[in-house]
Amino acid sequence: MNAYKRDEMISVTDLLKSFKTTLEKLTSHQLEKVAVMKNNKPEAVIISVDEYERLQSKHYWNRLDEQTYLTKAYESLNDTDAPSISLEELHKKLDDTIHRYED
């Protein structure tokens, strides 16, 4: 079971009253997730679209067998239409991601 910080838990009643504010906190990454509580138990978790897509991508890549994974990785390296970033940009993105999950 996941642990939730105090500000990541909200009752159904309070969520209905403050849905817009809660949604803004998720989309601005002030909150990573929000556990919707019913009778003091988590019933659902709300996450941002960014986080959902990241999880879906991770799930997709984890399900691939090694040969398919390597083939797709190789194809992406040879895709001349794919956007590219500099090594410095890559390091910054990695650092930002690491810091986001250290908190």
Q: Strands of the biggest beta sheet: in what spatial order?
A: 1-2-3
Kindly state the number of beta strands: 3
| Radius of gyration (Å) | 18 Å
What can be said about the biggest beta sheet?
Answer: 3 strands, mixed
End-to-end separation in angstroms reads: 19 Å
Tell me the series of helices and strands, N- to C-terminal.
Answer: EHHEEHHH
Anisotropy-based shape: elongated
Structural class comes to: alpha+beta
Give the total of domains.
Answer: 2
Q: Number of helical runs?
A: 5
Helical amount = 55-70%
Strand content: 15-25%
| Mean pLDDT metric | 83
Uncertain parts: none
How would you explain this protein's 3D organization?
With 103 residues, this protein is an alpha+beta fold. The protein folds into 2 domains: 6-47; 48-80, no CATH class. The protein has 5 helices and 3 strands. It has helices at residues 12-17, 19-27, 49-63, 66-77, 87-102; strands spanning 9-11, 33-38, 41-47. Strands 1-2-3 form a 3-stranded mixed β-sheet. The longest helix has 16 residues, at 87-102. The model has no long low-confidence stretch (mean pLDDT 83).
